[in-house]
Amino acid sequence: MNVKSIYKHVVLIMLVLLLAMPRVVMSQVMEFKRGVDTLSIADRIALRSNIVDWALTTPNIGVEFDVRNTNWNRWSVGLNFKYNWQAKHTYNPGVVYNIAETKLEVRNYWRYKQNAKVTYKKRTYTFYRGLYLAYDKFSLMLSGSGSQGKAISGGVSLGVIKPFYNFKNGNSMDFELGASAGICYAKYDKYRLDRESNCYPVTEVGKTAILPMVNDIRVSLVYRFGNYPITKKYRWRIEADGDYYQRLIIERDSIEQANESKIIETNNNNSIINEFSAAYDSLLVIVMKQEAEKQKQEALKRNAAPKAPAANVKPTTKDTVEAKPVAQDSVEVKPIQHDTVAVEPVKHDTVVVEPVAPVSEESKTEDESVNEAKSAEDNPEGSNPAGGNQDNDAVVSDEDNNGKEAKDE
Q1: What is the largest CA-CA distance in the chain?
Q2: How far apart are CA 162 and CA 27, in angstroms?
């Protein structure tokens, strides 16, 4: 089967589909009325086919089913298939494009919400986002060598759908643009084309790779069964479900009332605190003024009161007795000249006389002053109380001097 025959088959299939469909009666119109509708099984089923894959000589078809049976449901599950494997050729071609794929896809639809800033034209577009998981069997050769193996891929899908036609029986057709991309894990063998033997010998076995890839580029036609086109489906629940809308309004009002009551309570508390603070500050100022005035009056009273005369009190002075130092009689000892005779020095016992420490008047107590006064009365002639010892002191001094002279000699 060559490329021309494939295109003939594609055109024939498209013509059969168009002839089998009822005649077009009107274009689709968006519905904005509020109300929840229950969808039948047929209303929840859609078929799609990608024109890009047909252009690559890969027949494909997909089926999609809505998760819930309400018009505000925005989730769907789809399963897509494409298959083009080992087309017959007289000679093995130098370009090989064989692929078989099964892909599971989950989508979430949404459109612009209804408000004054959104035009009618914008609201006719329905957007989707989703996740996919695909299993592929492939054999690709675009140059002198090729790869053949299996792959598992996963990623995200994005796209937009525009309503196209409504048919007489209630079915509808939409136009879709989108793409899927993600990460692919592949295990494959390498091969090449041998023209002489007209075969593909394997050059490498068991190679693996993890790489990013574009899984699908979609320019698709979507055929929806039943009497419920996309213009009535995938609506925001707040726009379709009146009870839900009222419940949201009630919840919003209750939340706003709670917030308002909380704000009022906070303002009341703040006003009470402010009033208390103002009263406390004013009372504190009054008390401080009274205290300052009281201190001022007491100071004036102290200054105005007459001063009492100072009492003529003589300081009590203790009788002090002048202590005179005790003068010891000094005896002058003259050296004795002797004939030059070797005389051994006479050793005498030396007596150490400790000096008498003078007693200061400040350290004398009252009793000591009295004792000194009594001793002065007993010795009126000013005799030395230690007079009996003067001779002894002189003798000691003579002995010391004799000892010194003997040492000198």
Answers
A1: 179
A2: 11
CA distance 277 to 378: 89
Alpha helix segments (H runs only) across 78-200: 120-123
Compute and round to an integer the Cα radius of gyration of the chain.
64
Residue 44 CB neighbours (<10 A): 20
DSSP conformational letter for 143: S
CB 1 within 8 A of CB 87: yes
Tokens representing residue 68 in the block: 């819930």
How far is 107 from 74, CA to CA, in rounded Å?
A: 8
Q: What is the pTM of this model?
A: 0.56
Alpha carbon distance, N-terminus to C-terminus of the chain: 160
How far apart are alpha carbons 203 and 146 in whole angstroms?
Answer: 10
pLDDT for residue 48: 95
CB 58 within 8 A of CB 99: yes
What count of other Cβ atoms lies within 10 Å of the Cβ of residue 125?
12
Whole-angstrom Cα distance, residue 67 to residue 394?
Answer: 142
What gap in Å lies between CA 13 and CA 68, rounded to an integer? 32
From residue 57, how far is each of 34, 61, 89, 299 by CA, in Å? 45, 13, 15, 115
**Which residues in the chain come in under a pLDDT of 50?**
1, 3, 20-27, 317-321, 323, 326-331, 333, 336, 338-343, 346, 348, 350-353, 356, 359, 361-365, 380-397, 399, 403-409
Nearest to residue 83, comparing CAs of 50, 45, 132, 131? 50
Ranges of beta strands (E only) in 225-346 are none
Residue 155 one-letter amino acid: G
Q: Where are the beta strands (DSSP E) in 193-245?
A: 202-224
CA 34 to chain centre: 45
Instruction: Kindly provide the b/e burial profile for residues 153-179, where b requires at least 16 CB atoms within 10 angstroms of the residue's own CB.
Output: bbbebebebebbbbbeebbbbbebebe
What pLDDT digit, counting tens, does each position of 62-120 carry?
999 999 988 888 999 999 999 988 766 666 777 888 999 999 999 999 988 766 566 66
